[in-house]
Design goal:
The chain contains eleven helices and 18 strands. By secondary structure, the protein is an alpha+beta fold. Among the domains are: 133 residues, Glutamate-cysteine ligase, N-terminal domain (Rossmann fold); 94 residues, 2-Layer Sandwich (Dna Ligase, domain 1). Strands 1, 2, 15, 16, 17 and 18 form a six-stranded antiparallel sheet that branches. A six-stranded mixed sheet has the order 5-6-4-3-9-10. Strands 11-14-12-13 form a four-stranded antiparallel sheet, with helices on both faces. Helix 3 packs across helix 4 and helix 5 crosses helix 10.
Length: 423
Amino acid sequence: MDVSGIEQKLKEKRSSVEVWIKRHAEKVCFPIYSSVDLRDAGFKISAIDANIFPAGFNNLCRSFLEKGATLFREYVKQNFGDIERVAIYPESHTRNKFYLQNLHSLKFLVEQSGFQAIIATADPRFSPPVTELETVEGQKIHIHRLFREANALVSEGFIPELILINNDFSDGKPQELVDLDQPVSPPAEMGWFIRSKWEHTQFYMSLVQEFADILSVDPWLLSPVTEFESNILFKTGEGLDRVAKKVDHVREAVVAKYREYEIDREPVIFIKDNAGTYGMGIITVASGEQVLSLNRNQRKKMSRGKSGADIRSVIIQEGIPTSDYFIGQPGEPVVHMIGDQVLGGFFRYSESKSEIDNLNSPGTKFAKLCLREADEFDEALACYRGHCSFDLYYTIARISCLAMGHEMKSLELCPEVLQDKEN
């Protein structure tokens, strides 16, 4: 059994899979948008990261953004009613011009949906009333300052009816967003100051088990072996003996599966910050012994996350090599969602990385995967498209999105009507 075999089984069981997805979707709510990183090894495929405050909208084809406008408008109407004004609340790293390009594209999507939109923040590091910045492609964008008036955020007479968050709040929920009358979406409580990769992985693995049962395949072919360890501190070495034991345990499980499927390669194990984002707080090892002999730079890399807080818990996860290459360079697909609907995707690749490395890292490049309009293809992308299992990619992304929905429900972030329905 390999990925092509799994895709064939998916085609045969598509109607049963859709019934199963719908049944789970009725039990949860979904973030307004999200993205899912995938790895296709040829012999297995899995989601490897799930982002509830996604960037990368600038890497989507215009046709995807136009499709997204319809999906976004429908999601907003269903969840927030007939509103007109949206404030996009961004990250604060304005020196990253690629991120600014993302904001430019996200604003385009919101405006294409028929809403008035501004990019605005309550972060005091931005000068009122507006800060003008330039994207990597040379467009001007304006970051407006939001100020608290009673239980609302306003900007120079612009009163948003929805605060659209594009900030993962690794260092906590801003006080300005507490007890607002305006809806905030996705909920700030889904930021990494609360959210956990381990919790998401547990929901994902549970769903994959059910999905695999429908297809009659081994769930290992759809998920990485993963374990968890807490109460650790890399800079002092606290708890690293326990991490090392978990690494060896994961490695042994992967070796057994490689032997079962006659896969001739050595396992690589990822150690990831349990609240990590932007590809930070990740190292790879081949054995538990390597954990105990990490050099100073490796320990430093794993000491603090994006917010500067100490990394105190990690997931220990099987590394999945990619079989996807773009212009000869290893890469991986990223799928964007609006609610529980697939919006589209792009391809992340790197000339300086191997097929097993973390590709969400500095120096990574991006290619649009334009699948809807023939005139949007270039030769390389058309060639890449020829061997991709997009139906399977999108289904895996939907399962990861279901896991995010279960996360939201577990944190009691779903509407009361849904909570009541379950009781």
